[in-house]
């Protein structure tokens, strides 16, 4: 590949790539993201290659492995261009039929997405309700490009924004455009990106750095991974534009080591961009030099925090330090350093290409553009969703997420990762934005969204997140190291039925201290899960502490299972399935639960046939004594239940 030495040459290369491609030639884009690979995408890709060779169709049909388009739950997923026919849950055995359908210009109906609610099938990707209600300005490109091919990125207009910045805009113009766009950081705090860049560019120094935060420590979140793995050039292009705007000649990508594919793809992308002259010295023939290095993080959650990340980049243990001076003024090796999240950087080429006014058409008054969320938990359509800011939580949960499985009731949505907050049903019409979420006691965080149904105990949820944060605290400051641990201890006691009067107030006090006095945002925001659940579900805390009752019936120490003798039909299913042999029964014998042996696994409750529903789950009340042995015999045909048997 030849070096590109001017803006005109870039357009020539792009034109050459496009003219060598026939837009009408069918191309099968198969997601090769981690989720789809786990459900067999590699085998599907291999089967397509084999089938196409077997039929001698290499010149007629293209295939490509791509990044994740978001609907991982239905993977392996593929889209056939140019018609954009989308198939879900494709298996290697489906491949011959799909290849035939391309030749015959037909559709394989059984592989289309079927909407469970309406039974309607969606032929195109954009017809699927999950996608229909999204605005995928970033994620939408993933399925169009082979992440190993810079030519694919150039074909969709890649590096045009870098070229525009270098040839048509001054450093200040770029900065002003980003400021005007209102872009705020997608990694957590939502700090205005343009102001951060401006601070760095004005800080007196001969050296400046730009850094990508690809640590993504939130459990269950994988949006940064999807962007970095699936479209690494979009992040590199954004980073190079940022470097130009602030006057940096070195950049770093701090990526967690658990993302080996992202590291591999971005390293390859860097090499390709350098060969084309889009990174390195004299970029596009100008005097702008910019080199990028990838650094693998060791996987500690706290290393995602800006100062800890920079300390880790310097080769020292990643621990936060006080921010008397912001990192954009004195950061990596004490030099001005702009740290932004993967998604933040990926937005930059779009803003430069299409303009700030285009970007601000999406969003609320103070949150512009789109945001990628990782939608998980008790929701029908899990995966990555990209929505314009301002969309309501209700739309995300019900229109995009398809509602709660099993006809259960929505209870809360947790946003903002482990230190975010839980938002109750009464606030489902809240518009999603940085300030909107903070106002109700939660936060945007990096975009984790966990949906909870009515079988979720909110006290236990708070305990779970505090457990994670206690493990991840670096231990440097007391309010976090000791305070959060003490909160966890108290919450654990409450969920075990050992809560006592004054515990809730003690928790509030500890939370307040951590918010005020912890050194970094891990400790400062760690009380959020507790504070938000207390605010919206106080009755659940009180039931646990004062009535030793878990209203959601999930805290094991506070629940019990027993069998209603009037309903048991001695079908023996529960006794056979009980893992601890805690169910005493037999043919024609009403069954009883031996409370001593019962581990409260809930299996009997699940397996007792719905027409009997004899197993009862109770909390906060005494377990009824088992009926005497002599009254357990069921005489068939004479009615049911102990009373009638006598
Ligand atoms: C404990 C902790 C973990 C964090 N983890 C991440 C992370 O994984 N990725 C990220 O982009 N930001 C993370 N942040 C936020 C960063 O400190 C920083 O604000 C962000 O990377 C700045 O980029 P942005 O302005 O583009 O959001 C974390 C913050 C804290 C306190
Ligand atoms: S708040 Fe927690 S994670 Fe942050 S510096 Fe203090 S101990 Fe470490
Ligand atoms: S809850 Fe589990 S252990 Fe207890 S009786 Fe039922 S199946 Fe057995
Ligand atoms: S499964 Fe239900 S009906 Fe059958 S023996 Fe157990 S409790 Fe009785
Ligand atoms: S990994 Fe394939 S859709 Fe997400």
Structure explained in plain terms:
With 646 residues, the protein is α/β, with parallel strands linked by helices. The chain is 39% helix and 15% strand. The protein contains 25 helices and 19 strands. The chain has a five-stranded mixed β-sheet with strand order 12-11-15-13-14. A four-stranded mixed β-sheet has the order 2-1-3-4, with helices on one face. A four-stranded parallel β-sheet has the order 9-8-7-10, with helices on both faces. The model is unreliable at 639-646 (pLDDT under 50). Bound molecules: flavin mononucleotide (FMN), iron/sulfur cluster (SF4) (3 copies) and FE2/S2 (inorganic) cluster (FES). One iron/sulfur cluster (SF4) is lined by residues 561, 578, 580, 582-583, 593, 598-604.
Short description:
With 646 residues, the protein is of the alpha/beta class. The protein has 25 helices and 19 strands.
Annotate the secondary structure layout.
Blueprint: H1 7-19, E1 27-31, H2 34-38, H3 41-54, E2 62-66, E3 78-81, E4 85-87, H4 95-104, E5 113-114, E6 121-122, H5 129-132, H6 150-155, H7 160-168, H8 171-181, H9 193-202, E7 209-214, H10 223-230, H11 232-246, E8 250-256, H12 260-276, E9 291-297, H13 306-313, E10 337-341, H14 342-354, H15 356-359, E11 370-377, E12 383-388, H16 393-400, E13 410-415, E14 421-424, H17 434-439, E15 448-453, H18 458-472, H19 478-495, H20 503-517, H21 521-525, H22 528-547, E16 559-563, H23 573-577, E17 583-586, E18 589-593, H24 603-607, E19 615-619, H25 641-645
Parallel strand pairs: 1-2, 7-8, 7-10, 8-9, 11-15
Antiparallel strand pairs: 1-3, 3-4, 5-6, 11-12, 13-14, 13-15, 16-19, 17-18
Helix pairs in contact: 7-11, 7-14, 8-9, 8-11, 10-11, 10-12, 11-14, 18-19, 18-22, 19-20, 20-22
The chain binds flavin mononucleotide, iron/sulfur cluster (SF4) (3 copies) and FE2/S2 (inorganic) cluster.
């Amino acid at each position: 590949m030849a070096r590109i030495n001017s803006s005109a040459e870039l357009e020539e290369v792009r034109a050459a790539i496009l003219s060598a491609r026939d837009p009408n030639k069918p191309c099968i884009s198969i997601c090769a993201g981690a989720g789809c690979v786990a459900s067999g995408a590699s085998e599907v890709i291999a089967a397509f290659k084999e089938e196409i060779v077997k039929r001698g169709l290499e010149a007629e049909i293209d295939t490509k492995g791509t990044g994740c388009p978001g609907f991982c739950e239905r993977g392996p997923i593929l889209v056939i261009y140019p018609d954009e026919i989308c198939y879900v849950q494709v298996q290697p055995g489906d491949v011959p039929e799909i290849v035939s359908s391309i030749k015959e210009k037909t559709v394989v109906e059984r592989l289309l997405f079927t909407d469970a609610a309406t039974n309607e099938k969606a032929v195109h990707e954009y017809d699927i309700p999950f996608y229909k209600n999204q605005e995928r300005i970033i994620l939408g490109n993933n399925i169009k490009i082979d992440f190993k091919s810079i030519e694919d990125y150039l074909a969709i207009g890649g590096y045009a924004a870098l070229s525009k910045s270098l040839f048509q805009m001054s450093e200040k113009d770029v900065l002003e455009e980003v400021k005007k766009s209102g872009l705020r950081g997608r990694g957590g705090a939502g700090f205005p990106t343009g102001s951060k860049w401006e601070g760095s560019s004005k800080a007196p120094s001969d050296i400046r750095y730009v850094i990508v935060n690809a640590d993504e420590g939130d459990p269950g979140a994988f949006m940064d991974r999807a962007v970095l793995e699936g479209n690494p050039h979009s992040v590199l292009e954004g980073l190079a534009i940022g470097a130009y705007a602030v006057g940096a000649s070195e950049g770093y990508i701090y990526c967690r080591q658990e993302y080996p594919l992202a590291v591999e793809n971005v390293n390859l992308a860097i090499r390709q961009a350098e060969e084309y002259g889009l990174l390195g010295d004299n970029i596009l023939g100008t005097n702008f030099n910019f080199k990028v290095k990838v650094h693998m993080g060791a996987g500690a959650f706290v290393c995602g925090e800006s100062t800890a990340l920079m300390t880790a980049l310097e080769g020292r243990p990643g621990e936060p330090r006080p921010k008397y001076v912001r990192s954009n003024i004195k950061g990596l090796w004490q030099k001005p350093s702009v740290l932004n999240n993967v998604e933040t950087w990926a937005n930059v080429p779009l803003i430069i290409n299409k303009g700030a006014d285009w970007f601000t058409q999406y969003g609320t008054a103070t949150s512009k553009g789109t945001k990628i969320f990782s939608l998980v938990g008790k929701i029908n359509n899990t995966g990555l969703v990209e929505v314009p800011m301002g969309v309501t939580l209700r739309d995300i949960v019900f229109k995009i997420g398809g509602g709660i499985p099993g006809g259960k009731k929505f209870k809360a949505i947790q946003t903002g990762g482990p230190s975010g907050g839980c938002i109750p049903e009464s606030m489902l019409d809240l518009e999603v934005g940085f300030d909107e979420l903070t106002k109700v006691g939660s936060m945007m965080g990096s975009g984790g969204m966990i949906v909870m149904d009515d079988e979720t105990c909110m006290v236990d949820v708070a305990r779970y997140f505090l457990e994670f944060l206690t493990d991840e605290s670096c231990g440097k400051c007391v309010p976090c190291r000791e305070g959060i641990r003490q909160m966890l201890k108290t919450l654990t006691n409450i969920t075990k039925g050992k809560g006592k009067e004054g515990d809730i107030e003690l928790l509030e006090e500890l939370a307040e201290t951590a918010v005020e006095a912890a050194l970094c945002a891990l400790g400062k925001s760690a009380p959020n899960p507790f504070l938000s659940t207390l605010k919206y579900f106080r009755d659940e805390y009180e039931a646990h502490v004062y009535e030793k009752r878990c209203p959601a019936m999930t805290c094991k120490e506070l629940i019990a299972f027993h069998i209603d003798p009037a309903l048991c039909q001695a079908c023996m299913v529960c006794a056979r399935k009980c893992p601890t042999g805690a169910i005493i029964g037999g043919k024609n014998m009403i069954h009883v639960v031996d409370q001593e042996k019962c581990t409260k696994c809930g299996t009997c409750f699940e397996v007792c046939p719905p027409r009997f529903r004899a197993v009862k789950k109770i909390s906060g009340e005494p377990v009824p004594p088992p009926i005497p042995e002599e009254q357990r015999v069921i005489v068939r045909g004479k009615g049911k239940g102990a009373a009638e048997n006598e």
